[in-house]
Write a structure and sequence with these properties.
tRNA-binding (chains A, B, C, D, E, F), EC 2.7.7.56 (chains A, B, C, D, E, F), homohexamer, RNase_PH (chains A, B, C, D, E, F), alpha+beta, 6 helices, ExoRNase_PH_dom2 (chains A, B, C, D, E, F), transferase (chains A, B, C, D, E, F)
């Protein structure tokens, strides 16, 4: 790998600057404004005591997620899905991915009959909005769980989180495997992969797509290697953010 | 008026702290993140050269606006309008108000055949989201017009803005007329009025509603007096924000 | 003011001929076909014993309203909102205005756990459809309340109406303040205001909009004066209509 | 047949009182407020010079129809289809029936490239709304065609109407064949049939449905006989209405 | 009638080859893949113990139907109704016809509080999809009822079916009355009629439409004669199909 | 691996019986009814000369796909998406996957300005509906391309297919890696992966999801090995199906 390949000067295996503003929202039980470079996502976690009717009485909770983009998050304005009257396929797909990813680190018995809705709203988009969403939603989720514990909705000794979770994109751009693609890189990528990993380094979701030419086993392996490195870094950043005191608590 | 009536220590005629972060978005031609206390609205202005087909060839431009709230902007989570598949009446009403208010200070001949879409997305709500939206949208609009002028889409000597515009809420809470109601005040207000005013102090829109008892002419007059004072202050803040250099330009 | 300014020969402060056909519908508990000149609105009030589930057990009733226009009420045909699959912003806004206006004169405790839905369907439109709707809906509401009392759904001594309510439009056309604008006047109006007033002469709603140039305090005051005069006349007409015996009762 | 069977005193083969208020609407090119007893339908015909794009250049016109009921046309209020966001099956079915029925008496070549939209809005319903709609829509259509001829959109010698068209319901109630069912009869009918017939006595549409027991050939024949008698009477009433001078022309 | 008029060599009074693959679906309680020539419809009957809430406690069941076409069932592809977000008028109309037709041969008391949903999905269309749907749905319904009886949801001695039901189209093509129109014939038919008949030869539904010229009483009678012959044949085919052992039972 | 683990007697690495009925539809330019055991999907390819407006003039074609399930394809009936008025997230996600997968083996320059829509309608579902869809859609696509070549819409020497494509699911059930999961296995799988592979053995899409516990690199590798074996077999079956003469051509 050459070191100077990327528009923003990053090395192929380097993340963009990642910042996590925990507790950004005064209204939500947990929240984080996360940035992966110019990609900014506001993640909120809404804690409700109780579960949907079809789950009542099983002693288990539920976690779900919704993803959306502001109309001018991107370079040219998109119509609002509310105005179009329907949620688009891409939005649905990403909402489902975020939900599955976060549920994979939650012990629903330990959560008890509580529901958490994660909202990931992209305020500004520059590639990697789904991976930033998952990574930020974990921080919001952790805070909402702490909130629920403090108020007694979750048992004192319950450990609803089995691990942390983060996600990063990797891809092959101009023949070069790269970590954390910005939009300009993503749109040129021949292969594009989103990898969701636990803090312990196991896979929760691997989604690789050949945008141009099909990819082979070696390329797949190289990309997975990169993704594990990037996610390890993100796990540290999440841990650091959660170690700080929350302002105003 | 007593000075110590309000929960946050304000006098009845005092605005909440107002901040305007101009150029918040790297993607939009104009943008402002505006706060009225804990109410935070991201306003973007999207500039498009050209107008909708039905307006072509008239030498005139168009300005339109859309307002929305993030699902967890408020104290309890609301369902997304995109998920419900329809835009609600309140959203429609406020979108239309913002559009009318901004159009009132635009000379469409001077704008030429260009279209500007204003998006006001409430990131956090604590009362006054529509008035903050109008006030912030003006700043975003001004910057988008400057952008269009620099690129030659608007004539060099054209003055598409005829004045500035801002808006503030006033209301009678527990018998006391007050400026810039926070949510807790708004929900207790007997009469609630939103007043949109030009920088020159003329009315663009007056919307007064008796939530409890009907109001009389004197109360109406007192509220209008308060609103004119508040809007004059907002006009100064807008002017100050627009006088600064935009970072990164 | 000159006396001969208006297309239909009215003086600036003169209402169009107003007729109220009470009990037009054999099906509804209360109804009125109201005309303001060529504007004709069929107002029905549907009385239901009981309230929506979220209100049960509070001993209070509810009043709500829906407004709509027949597709060919206007000079050129509009698509039906049912066919488009969504209620438009203007329709939503007016429905909400009618609901708020009528609720302002109802004592929900006295109404008891009963629900009244007001439907205002514009059969023919020539300006002032929302003001005719409010004025006619009051008559339909009064009859539906009488119906509910006769059948014992409302207590014998209960007074669910605290006052009457009517509405009229005023505006500045070619520099001249005018009452009850017909469509041709409305579309030329620089300022347009809808004023909802109780029988007692207090304000329920004031909605003034600068369609052209912003308006000043003096103009606002002149318009409010005109509106109060017009509404006083409407209150008399409502009273007269309600004083008659209902055919077929 | 006994003479005194029916609630309103009609004989089995007798129509309800039918009235046709031609030119009810000042806005539409043709209109009729038609009553079959307490069933009242406002029919408007909107004339547009030109045809939908997919028909352009063929020298032929088009006629289409939309049917709807006001929410409180019936004994208990129905939700608006616009509010539900979709047109119901029954509405669709009747709109299509009206359109087919009217198109059957139009010569599209003689109409030329003009479009007519028929709107049938039921203001009050007491059975037979679809048959009253067809019968009234014919009058509105005839007037709209005359309007188009006067203004030169239709050739001077063109005869776009090949015949008149009317419709009536027939049914077997308590074993007795009856003409023009009121709602209370319709809901008890074992067999229910709507028959659309030209002025010349030929069938355009026959829709017979066994609501209770299946029906045999004899019953079918008796019902068709009744329907032809009723439609002949309606054809006379249409002719009489169209023979009068239109007020205000 | 000449014998050699039709494209596929049929005589005017001859059905296309009809096949009924009973038990096609492993998932549904009753099913049939029915062919009328190249028209192929998959009919499934879904049996649910219980009825919708509004029917509970009356000791009666319910039968309903939904019809749909695959997007490429026809010669040119249609947009999916799910993608368009609304069910079209034709689909609604046919779904309602199928439901009414099948309900006409069901004794709801004998069915008990059970619900059967009939789904008729057109896999390939060549005219007569609604008549094939009704004819096939009857077979699926009979099997679902047998299924319910075996499992004790329907009383042992109950006879929920009062008769069989089938349907066929008839029409006048180039002046010649014909049975079971294929698409190419249907699109040229001057009059088109769908006739739903019980096994006992009585009418459930007669829907005749003049597509071109209106039709007279004689033509109507000839068409009804043809339809009764065709339906008698279909009733035999249904009986034969139901007489066979179901594979895998 | 033990050989007798699976309900249907398969070994862990064994596909279910796969059948491909090519040319099932008389209407579509290409079609295949494909079965993976009890999963049956009707795949049609609709060929249109021309491309959407936004692609015109670039000399390139387009391929898109839509997936849907009949309401009673599954063990319990689902509501139709057309009736619900919106396409669900899962449907969207799978439609997009099928489209991407097929596009990956198409050379759009060689296709020329032609559009192919692939419809995959699940008639019966027993796990693996998306993989059967992709595998069958390839056969339909190949036939539609041949159709387009014969008619001269595609150049004589053009090779629009760069490879074949198939897909298979793999998963870890009760600790055992398995190929081609039936529904009962899929619902018990801890990890579930869909792998789309070219005939040449390269990856087009890898979608692995931890339904229960996260998975590690070794498990991922074992699953990929299995998937490559299964897809090689499917590629042979596709080739064999395409080698046969199409009936009726």
């Amino acid at each position: 790998m050459t070191d100077t390949l990327r528009a923003d000067g990053r090395t192929p295996g380097q993340l963009r600057p990642v910042t996590i503003e925990r507790g950004w929202s005064k209204q939500a039980e947990g929240s984080a404004l996360i940035s992966f470079g110019d990609t900014k996502v506001l993640c909120t976690a809404s804690f409700t005591n109780g579960v949907p009717r079809w789950m009542t009485g099983q002693g288990k909770g539920w976690v779900t997620a919704e993803y959306s983009m502001l109309p001018r998050a991107t370079n040219s304005r998109s119509d609002r899905e509310a105005v179009k009257g329907r949620v688009g396929g891409r939005t649905h797909e990403i909402s489902r991915l975020i939900g599955r990813s976060l549920r994979a680190v939650v012990d629903f018995k330990a959560l008890g009959e509580n529901t958490i809705v994660l909202d990931c709203d992209v305020l500004q988009a520059d590639g990697g909005t789904r991976t930033a969403s998952i990574t930020g939603a974990y921080v919001a989720l952790a805070d909402a769980l702490a909130w629920g514990k403090e108020r007694g909705f979750i048992g004192k000794k319950a450990q609803p989180l089995t691990d942390s979770v983060s996600a990063i994109s990797v891809g092959i751009v101009a023949g070069e495997p790269m970590l954390d693609l910005a939009y300009v890189e993503d749109s040129r990528a021949g292969t594009d992969m989103n990898v969701v990993v636990t803090g312990g380094g196991k896979f929760i979701e691997v989604q690789g797509t050949a945008e141009g030419a099909p990819f082979d086993r070696d390329e797949l392996n190289t990309l997975l290697d990169l993704a594990l490195i990037g996610n390890a870094e993100l796990a540290n950043l999440q841990q650091a953010a959660l170690a700080q005191d929350l302002a105003g608590e």
